[in-house]
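Q: Second attempt. The first request was missing the SMILES, so the protein and thiamine diphosphate are both included now.
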Amino acid sequence: MDKKTALDLYRVMRRIRDFEERSSALFAEGKVWGTIHSYAGEEAIAVGVCAHLRDDDWITSTHRGHGHCIAKGADLGRMYAELLGRETGYCRGRGGSMHIADTSKGNLGANGIVGGGIPIATGAALTAKQLGTDQVAVSFFGDGAANQGGFHESANLAALWKLPVVYVCEVNQYAESLPVEREFPIKDISKRAEGYGIPGVRVNGLDVREVYKAAGELIARARRGEGPSFLVAEAYRHEGHYYGDPRKYQTKEQIEGWKTKFDPIAEARRWIVDAKLATAAELDAIDADAIEEAKRAVAFAESSPLASPIDLPGDVYAS
Amino acid sequence: MRAASGLSRTGTQGRPKPAERIRQTPISELGIVGAAVGAALTGLRPIVELMYVDFSGLAMDQLVNQAAQNRFMFGGQARVPMVMRTQGGSGRGNAAQHSKSLEAWFAHVAGLKVVMPATPADAKGLLTASIRDDDPVIFLEHKLLYRTKGEVPTGEHVVPLGSADVKRAGKDLTIVSWSREVLFALDAAKQLGSEGIEAEVVDLRTLVPLDKDAVLSSVRKTHRLLVVHEAIKRAGFGAEIASLVAEEAFDDLDAPPRRLAGLETPIPYAQHLEKTVVPQVDDIVRVAKELVA
Ligand SMILES: Cc1ncc(C[n+]2csc(CCOP(=O)(O)OP(=O)(O)O)c2C)c(N)n1
Ligand SMILES: [Mg+2]
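A: Got both inputs this time. The predicted holo structure:
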């Protein structure tokens, strides 16, 4: 991997991690309403995949959607503004963390319904097919969502119609409190792809290089008109299911140990330095930039006016 | 499916063959309705068809949580210009799982539009308007109306959503109805006319958006309201019409509003039983007479 690609991937992962830490702090301060779900620990997946997408490619995201949104190029200020219920937020305070969308960048939205985005990404891929473009759709979803009927209906439909969509399952070991071994009767869920006659690939989601490589091939394949595929990336959820989760279903080792043992960002630092693509000091400088950028974004959000309630009903229908 | 301006598109390499604009799908109601939502969000104007409205439960998440709410949740960033066409209603011995009238479900969801034509001409005009509309439209066709005949304008014919139609003018009472019951109401009005009672029949045509003015101005003229629909009475859309009139035209009423609607049962199979659970022409005549008495 060349230096520029490696550092770009690292930078976006950093940006996401910082966003998760900072939004948790804002939540703790009582400034964020509702619920937020941290993507910490899973950054390599969104970043490795979205690095291959253009602004006119589409993604659908999940309740744990900040990472996908940032990896698809969202503006951090507008994201923070949404969490803080501001008029400048992506959804003008109507959506919040679980519904951030950025259609200008092809992000068709986070989704509060587990598996809800999967049929939608399939429909976006249908648009590309109908119009004869080379756009691609990617649907991110969790291990829990892989057991929703919508995944199976969509995979079959996309395979049948050869739609340019890549289904990306992020196995973060849990669906809320339910561990993966109690979700699936099989160990390697990428095998499900076989049932639909599409490629299924399983990667280490802690290594952004692996995700980047596999996603690159599957996305290029979709772009060439060769149809859908299923990418399964394994990682670890560093935080609870949501901010404030008491995590009674996990051991101390899982809660404390996983963060350091399974960290895609520490992992990236290691191989970037080992391969002499950058020095630790250069990486530290990227981290410092991410912090400055985030501080500016939060300041923008905090100085923005609260979302106006005036035209709430007017936003329901387009006409 | 039809292309429309939507999200940015680049790399267009040509149009697909026309045959692909109509796709037969596997039996995956959730999958195909969701695909229509995604296609609508990204610039197409898909029409997705379910065989029966009774199957919409399988696709309800995509209709209610996604199609209906995307625009609002995303702060106006999205449009979902899709039409879900399906058939509803009883009268063909299809029994409980293929005969329901579920318009109230959809009318209760902020973000959906609900269209129910009663005549061939309205079906054409409303479907055209629904396809051109930038919001998700639930287009409900009564299965027994497929056999009815009527004049249909050739060429461009658009019936704007939210415009009710006075299908018969009268001065003694207002009958508000939609879908197949409009035809029953017109038959009933004819009978009533021969007995000197002039009923005005207002066909709502679309429940959402609702043409409140058409309902209120008719009631202000006749001073009596009867709402007739096939769906079961409890929490049916007739309650919405009756309360609209009670709230906004109470002083114009000479009698309490009446609702005539389906019995609170699933639709039974046998022909003679099926008829007993949904309002028939005679029922409308009887209740109309009570109302003007
Ligand atoms: C249809 C539906 N069922 C249940 C929930 C409640 N819920 C929210 S997140 C979640 C777990 C999802 O697990 P997974 O798909 O693995 O995603 P993760 O949270 O691990 O990222 C559940 C059950 C929901 N939001 N939607
Ligand atoms: Mg999970």
